[in-house]
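Annex B. Sample input.
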Amino acid sequence: MDTKSLKHFLALSETLHFGRASEVCHLSTSALSRSIQQLEENLGVSLFSRDNRHVELTEEGRVFLVYARDALDQWDTLRNSLLLGASQLQGEISVYCSVTASYSFLYDLLRQFRSEHPRVEIKLHTGDPAVAVQRILHGEEDIAIAARPDTLPKGLAFRSIGLSPLVFIAPADISQLPQLLTADINEANWAKIPMILSEQGLARNRVDEWFRNKAIKPSIYAQVSGNEAIVSMVSLGLGVGVVPKIVLDNSPLAERVQILPVTPRLAAYDVGVTVLNRKLRNPLIQAFWSQIQA
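Annex B, continued. Sample output.
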């Protein structure tokens, strides 16, 4: 079965950029364009609207995106079920996590998996942990390392692999932020302290709630994606940030920041591996999932 055209379509729908999609597919840009055009001709509709600057999915393209993801999932499940009987698991699975998670958790997970299933290719994508769960729910990734949401979405499976406190951090030289120069950090003028926060996600939700409970409107200096960037900005004396402690523990800038003993403390991150329940029918994903201690 030739699934190349569907994979080409998915690559372009995820990147919305012919150059980047062609790199993912190991094709020239012109070859990728021909593949998409042939798919559109077979379907009789335009899947993308494009000009010299922009590429975006059409309404028909968004409908076809659901089909393409489901079709490839079913094909991989069937193919690997057949191979499982011959003890020859092969194929690929995509994994998404933050840079910190890639060397804090992923190494141990992949070491065992690769030794048992050397013919399975791992496609690793790193980025903002705040969007990890959404990428799983939207079918963009097979597996993700993420913080467990306060309410686990329907259809999502989650297995914990560790806890990490969520901490307030300030520059090591606290004189860079005179608003913090007080005997009791909880008496600081929090309404005037520049805050460096995540754009979205669980950490941002918990910080926003912390300020609401204190009836304080925070002064937000910057909103960024990625916890590593928060540590960098705080170390420069630009403000106070909030990050999972595991990020700080693995940061080369750890000595340039300090943890603030604020109260009440924020709830810890429950870090784990997450996947759609329906994808656990795929023997590759089930093999990865089964090695995680429940």
